[in-house]
């Protein structure tokens, strides 16, 4: 069954996470008259629901919310959310810039609930050009819901912001799809049905997610044996010192974009410790204390297997066998469950834009987050979260949401004005 929405909208946004939610707010606060729609594959708003681990805090200040760096007086600020929820004074009393991840998710859901132009349970399966002669005039998007119904939408412009795709290393190809191997993005909903007393679990990774999952499993009533397997010598702390943190300031985007490609690549390598394969210092201290107290008690249920690489994985009955190479040489260890905290990847080549690739004239977005397209391709395609190599480390993070979304909203308004003038 296929439905069609015949109206050609000024813009359709793919995904309704923090990036496109910030865009929806920017468009609303600019009082634009654009016809817009957002499409999201989830049944309702949710932001990393399977990583809402009790006690997990945000790693960025609440002031880097959806709006405050653009307009601290906005009604969509985190502080205004607290006021509406009756928790402002109590939050102040906590003397912290870092709310829990659960509370920040509630803030995002509170903001999302104020919009009616998002269609949930709408997974975009295809984006194709609509042509008039040799010219692409607008785009057709096909979505599918969980009941299998296909719907077709049309848009003059597109904003792509579906978030990153869970990264499965090639090493785990043979067990991809096995219920006993899960990615961190599915952790909470998948681990509980599988968890039984005295199981052996491997957590693969060295970053914040791996450390949070390791700590969470250590406190579970089922008392599983847990190995955290990492290639590095130790869990490394994230560098969140003030001078280094300035790299995430929104005004750094222009500076980074102006650098030569080689300089940008070097900067990303030098600053990787602010975001990749690193963990908050307080969580590192917690894990160290936990392992120390385990030694005091003479237990060995929890282990940190550093300088260890996984070079093979296979299913053996109800277990997963990992081929490991570490300080004691190569060996095989079997586990009842494996959790991959291996991060996410963002690649335009593997996105729903594949059918438009022949019109794309460069692989990276322009400074205004718009993809460069060939002459005769009228729709503007903006991307959020795909520009780290050209726009800096903050591109996949919350730090630039407020200003990036406003830049795109301004561009969409200007495009609509130009189109209206051309039609007169």
3D structure, described in words:
The protein has 424 residues and is an alpha/beta fold. It folds into two domains: 2-165 and 345-423, FAD/NAD(P)-binding domain (3-Layer(bba) Sandwich), CATH 3.50.50.60; 166-238 and 276-340, FAD/NAD(P)-binding domain. It has helices at residues 18-29, 78-85, 88-93, 101-112, 187-194, 208-218, 242-245, 252-257, 261-270, 281-297, 388-391, 401-423; strands at residues 2-9, 11-14, 36-39, 118-119, 123-132, 135-144, 150-155, 157-160, 165-166, 181-183, 200-204, 225-229, 302-305, 309-316, 319-326, 329-335, 337-340, 344-345, 380-383. The protein has a five-stranded parallel beta sheet, with helices on one face. It has a five-stranded parallel beta sheet with strand order 10-17-11-12-13, with helices on one face. A hairpin with a 5-residue loop joins strand 6 (135-144) and strand 7 (150-155). Helix 6 (208-218) runs parallel beside helix 10 (281-297). The chain starts with a strand and ends with a helix.
Write the SSE topology.
Elements: E1 2-9, E2 11-14, H1 18-29, E3 36-39, H2 78-85, H3 88-93, H4 101-112, E4 118-119, E5 123-132, E6 135-144, E7 150-155, E8 157-160, E9 165-166, E10 181-183, H5 187-194, E11 200-204, H6 208-218, E12 225-229, H7 242-245, H8 252-257, H9 261-270, H10 281-297, E13 302-305, E14 309-316, E15 319-326, E16 329-335, E17 337-340, E18 344-345, E19 380-383, H11 388-391, H12 401-423
Parallel strand pairs: 1-7, 2-3, 2-8, 3-4, 8-19, 10-17, 11-12, 11-17, 12-13
Antiparallel strand pairs: 5-6, 6-7, 9-18, 14-15, 15-16
Helix pairs in contact: 1-12, 6-10
């Amino acid at each position: 069954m296929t439905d069609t929405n015949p109206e050609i909208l000024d813009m359709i946004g793919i995904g309704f996470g923090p990036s496109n939610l910030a865009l929806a707010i920017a468009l609303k606060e600019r009082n634009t008259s654009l016809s817009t729609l957002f499409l999201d594959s989830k049944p309702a708003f949710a932001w990393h629901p399977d990583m809402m681990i009790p006690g997990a805090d945000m790693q960025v200040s609440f002031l880097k919310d959806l709006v405050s760096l653009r307009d601290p007086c906005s009604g969509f600020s985190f502080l205004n959310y607290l006021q509406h929820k009756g928790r402002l004074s109590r939050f102040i009393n906590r003397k912290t810039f870092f709310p829990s991840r659960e509370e920040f998710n509630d803030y995002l859901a509170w903001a999302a609930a104020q919009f009616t132009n998002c269609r949930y349970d709408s997974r975009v399966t295809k984006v194709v050009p609509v042509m008039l002669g040799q010219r692409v005039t607008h785009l057709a998007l096909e979505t599918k819901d969980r009941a299998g119904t296909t719907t077709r939408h049309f848009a003059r412009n597109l904003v792509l912001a579906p978030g990153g795709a869970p990264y499965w290393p090639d090493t785990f190809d043979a067990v991809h799809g096995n219920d006993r191997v899960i990615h961190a993005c599915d952790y909470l909903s998948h681990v509980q049905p599988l968890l039984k007393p005295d199981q052996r679990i491997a957590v693969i990774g060295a970053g914040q997610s791996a450390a949070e999952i390791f700590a969470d499993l250590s406190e579970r009533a089922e008392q599983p044996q847990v190995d955290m397997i990492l290639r590095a010598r130790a869990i490394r702390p994230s560098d969140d010192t003030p001078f280094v943190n300035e790299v995430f300031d929104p005004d750094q985007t222009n500076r980074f974009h102006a650098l030569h490609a080689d300089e940008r690549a070097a900067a990303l390598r030098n600053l990787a410790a602010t975001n990749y394969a690193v963990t908050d210092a307080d969580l590192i201290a917690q894990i160290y204390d936990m392992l120390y107290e385990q030694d005091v008690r003479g237990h060995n249920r929890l282990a940190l297997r550093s300088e260890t690489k996984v070079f093979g994985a296979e299913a053996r009955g109800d277990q997963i066998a990992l081929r490991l190479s570490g300080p004691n040489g190569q060996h095989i260890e079997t586990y009842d469950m494996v959790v991959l905290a291996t991060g996410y990847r963002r690649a335009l080549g593997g996105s729903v834009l594949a059918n438009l690739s022949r019109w794309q004239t460069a692989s990276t977005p322009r400074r205004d987050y718009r993809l460069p397209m060939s002459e005769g391709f009228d729709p503007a395609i903006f991307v959020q979260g795909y520009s780290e190599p050209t726009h800096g480390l903050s591109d996949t993070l919350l730090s630039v949401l407020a200003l990036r979304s406003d830049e795109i909203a301004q561009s969409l308004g200007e495009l609509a004005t130009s189109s209206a003038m051309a039609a007169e």
